[in-house]
Design goal:
The chain is mainly β. It has four helices and 13 strands.
């Protein structure tokens, strides 16, 4: 598990194809590597990956074809900067929110605007994820825990303070960039809980207004 508080920005040193999968070598930048061990998890742009080789300044991770297809990691080239966070320890402060590193989908930056000293972005998510995005709720973008300012359909707005822009890759975002989206884990489980016994019914793929009304969650 992670917190969505980025520890360092690294850089892709090499991408090696391996029969549909790939291996990434990442320069760790300012990430403290002193306690890293083989098999440790490091979130890379929000994707939980396993360390398979490392030294004091870099580490390597294998990425499956499934992960390449479902995240922005398939876009990675040598020289690209990435957000890095080691798995949280039980004694650590939870400065962001609970993040699993399991990406739900890929969103797209629709606009970038300078507002005072902050950056305002509008981000479009796949339609299937829109129901999990709530005003003042939490969302994880490329591994960064953020608060949703506003939502209109499948587009939500975030505000980035200068510190976050400087300490993560978000300061580089421009319209058209693809980003990894992880919705709040509570929203995922809440949907399954509300489905109740119908969660086991393959013909009930998702929560609906009709199902909520049927089970007494909507008035009148």
């Amino acid at each position: 598990m992670f917190t969505g508080i980025i520890e360092a920005c690294g850089e892709i040193a090499a991408v090696k194809s391996q029969g549909g999968d790939c291996r990434l070598r990442i320069n760790a930048g300012g990430l403290d590597m002193s306690d890293v061990k083989l098999g440790d998890s490091i979130a890379t742009d929000g994707v939980c990956l396993t360390v398979v080789k490392f030294d004091s300044r870099s580490f390597e991770m294998d990425v499956s074809a499934e992960t390449l297809a479902k995240t922005s990691l398939g876009d990675f080239k040598a020289g690209r900067k990435v957000n890095l966070e080691k798995a949280m320890q039980p004694s650590a402060r939870l400065g962001g929110h609970i993040v699993s590193g399991h990406v739900d989908g890929v969103g797209t930056i629709e606009s970038r605007q300078l507002v005072g000293e902050s950056l305002r972005f509008h981000v479009r998510v796949p339609d299937a994820l829109a129901k999990y995005i709530a005003i003042k709720g939490s969302v994880c973008i490329d591994g960064v825990s953020l608060t949703v300012n506003n939502v209109e359909g499948a587009v939500f707005e975030i505000n980035i303070i200068p510190h976050t822009a400087d300490m993560t890759t978000i300061g580089e975002y421009q319209a058209g960039r693809r980003v990894n989206i992880e919705v709040d884990i509570i929203a995922r489980y809440l949907e399954r809980l509300l489905l109740g016994d119908k969660a086991a019914d393959v013909e009930t793929p998702a929560l609906s207004m009709d199902l909520l009304a049927e089970n007494g969650y909507l008035n009148g």
